[in-house]
Amino acid sequence: MKWMIDYVKDAPEICKNMVKNRKEITKDLVKKYTSKKYRGILIVGSGTSFNIGLSSKPVLEKYLNVPVKVQTPRTYAYYDYKFYDDYLILCISQSGRSTNTIDAVKRAQKQGNDVSAISMMPNSPISNYVKDSFEYGSYNGEGDSFVSKGFPTSFLYFSLFSIEAALKLNLIDQEKYDSAVAELEQIIEYMPKMREKSEEFYENNIEAIQNANRIMFAGIGAGFGLVQEACLKFSETTGIPTNGYETEEFLHGPSYEVKKDHVVFIMDLDLESSGLANKVFEAMKLLTDKVYMITDKRIRGNDVLSAEINVDDVLKPMLFVIPVQVIPSRICSDLNIRAITIYNHKASKLVQTKTDK
User: Fold this and answer.
1) CATH code, domain with 322
2) What is the pLDDT of residues 9-41, one digit of tens each?
3) CA angle at residue 294 from 300 to 54, to 5 degrees?
4) Residue 179 forms part of a structural domain
5) pTM for the complete prediction?
C-alpha cells in the first residue's frame, strides 16, 4: 500500500497534465455552468472533500463573482437544504462512495435543485444517482488512500474550471486568464521544492513535533481550509489530538488552552491578515516554545517554513497543503504508527460511511 508521501510525490506530474488538458477536463462543467445564470455555487462534501471546498471557495468567488457556500452532506440534506434555489450544487467525493454525499444528491434532487456530482474515480457509485457527473481529471489508474494527491489536484480542477468559465462569460480577459494559468504552472514547478522544504522543517523540529501532546492550527482566508485539512490529516494518521481555528477566533478562548507541551502552527498566506498572524505567532511564544509559522513571506528561522512564491493568495492552497501532508506522514513513518487501526475500521463499518453500489 502506498503511503501519504508517495501520493504527495505523484501530485506534480498529475497537475502538469491537468493544466495541459485543462479545457478538455473542465469543458462539461464549464458548459453546464455557463448555460444559465446561477445565483451561486454550493459545494457539498465530507472530510477532505469538505476542506477542498473551503480552500477552493476564494478562487471560485474571485473569478466567477458569485457567492460560494460549503456544507457537509448531512447538515445540507437534513437541515440546510431550503435556501439554494438557482444555485449550482456540486456534491464532491474523491471515491464517489460516500453515503452521506449520495444522500445530499438525493435531497438536492427532491428539492428540484440543479445538482451535479464530482469524483476522482471513473464510473463511481455516486454517478448512478445523478444526471450530470464529472471527473476531476486526476485519475491515473489507482486510488488515493489519504487524498494526498487528491487535495491539490481537486483544488486545481476548481481553479481551472473557474478561469475557463470566467473567460467564457467575459468576466476576465485573455491576459488575466493567461496570467492565472502561468501562476498555476509556477506553483506546480515549486511543489517538489516545497516537499523538500517541508522535510527539512520537520527534521529541524523533529523532537518537539513528535512529542506533542496536542497540536493547534490557526489560519484565515486562503489558509483556513488548509487548517481544517491539517486537523484531519494529523488526527487520522498520527492520532495526536489536533484542532484548527480561524486566526482571530483562536484568540477568543482556544489560545487560553495552550500549554508548554502543545505545538502551535500559524498559517500565514494572505496579505490582509499577515500582521495579525505575526502578532499571534509572537504572542504564543509566551505560552510554549513550540510555535511555528507556515508562510509565503520572506522570514527565516528553524521555527518558520517559508516558501517565497509570488502568486495570487487564492491559488496558494495547492502548494501549502504539502507541509500538512508531509509532516504527519513523516511522524508515522519514523515512529511506525498508524492511527487507522482495526478498531477504527470496525467503527467505520458499523456506521457504514461508504458504499460499493
Assistant:
1) 3.40.50.10490
2) 999 999 999 999 999 999 999 999 999 999 999
3) 160
4) no
5) 0.94
Amino acid symbol at 134: F
Q: Are residues 216 and 166 in the same domain?
A: no
Distance between CA 50 and CA 151 in Å, rounded? 10
Asked if the structure places residue 85 within a domain, the reply is yes
d(CA 46, CA 63): 24
A 10 A CB-CB count for 257 gives: 11
Q: Read out DSSP for 35-81?
A: TS--SEEEEE--THHHHHHHHHHHHHHHHH-S-EEEE-HHHHHHTS-
Sheet with 304-306: strands ordered across? 242-246, 214-219, 262-268, 291-295, 304-306
Same domain? 234 vs 267: yes
- Per the structure, how many domains does the chain have? 2
| CA separation for the pair 226, 220 (Å, rounded) | 9
Confidence of residue 356 (pLDDT cuts 50, 70, 90): low
Q: What is the pLDDT of residues 174-194, one digit of tens each?
A: 999 999 999 999 999 999 999
Residue 36 has phi, psi (to 5 degrees) of -150, 170
- CA dist., res. 73 & res. 92, Å (int): 10
DSSP 129: G
- Cell numbers found for residue 303: 521555527
Residues 207 and 311 in one domain: yes
**In terms of Cα–Cα distance, which of 38, 68, 70 is closest to 53?**
70
Domain housing 235: 191-335
CA distance 248 to 218: 8
Query: Are 21 and 72 in a shared domain?
Result: yes
Q: Of 157, 172, 178, 153, which is closest to residue 62 (Cα–Cα)?
A: 172
Partner residues linked to 291 by β-bridges: 264
Helices (H), 149-303: 150-168, 174-204, 206-210, 224-238, 247-250, 274-284
Q: What's the distance, Cα to Cα, between the start and end of the chain in Å?
A: 24
